[in-house]
Amino acid sequence: MSKGKFITFEGVDGAGKSTHLHWFADVLRQRGLDVLVTREPGGTPLGERLREILLSQPMHAETEALLMFAARLEHIGQVIRPALRRGTWVVSDRFSDASFAYQGGGRGVALSKLEQLERWVHEDLQPDLTLLFDIPIEVARQRLSSNTSLDRFEQEQGSFFEKVRQAYLERYQKNPQRFVLIDAAQTPEAVKADLEKIILALA
Ligand code: TMP
Hints:
5 strands, five-stranded parallel sheet, alpha/beta, globular, binds thymidine-5'-phosphate
């Protein structure tokens, strides 16, 4: 059986990527593919426990980076690689680009340290495709404002998210062959139309 594809969804909180991710996975399934939807931090029992801590407990920025990659190592070993090997497509809500954007851009953790962690944890694995949901921060903040229980990241200031957005765009500029930029400020219908075109090119 052929190897599955590894697709990641990225973007600042409030970009709407998670809603579209489930729709995207369903369309792939309708095309006869075996699709696993997962998320980071999370995706394994330990990863989900680390997620609870990461989303609620204040900590040093480098501790945050280390825990993100610790959860990722479990996720890759237990879930992502076995699925890809059996031909299943893996669609993950975030992966390492989020560490470069949030811990690197947002919190100021040195790029060289994050690159070291990336090499340690998944030197030979990168997503086949990354959909970056890009949106002006004031629009994303507006969308989050109706949410009554914001987590530790969602409670950050607009200036934090501006840095996260810029860091994501830098990742996109460095890896243009892997990324597709989605204009997430469009209507959900327009975003779906863009995603449909991507799916047509993929499967
Ligand atoms: P989610 O709400 O999109 O599932 O993501 C949870 C939060 O975790 C989100 O605010 C981004 C953050 N995050 C990081 O800061 N670094 C990472 O490496 C990952 C995967 C997520």
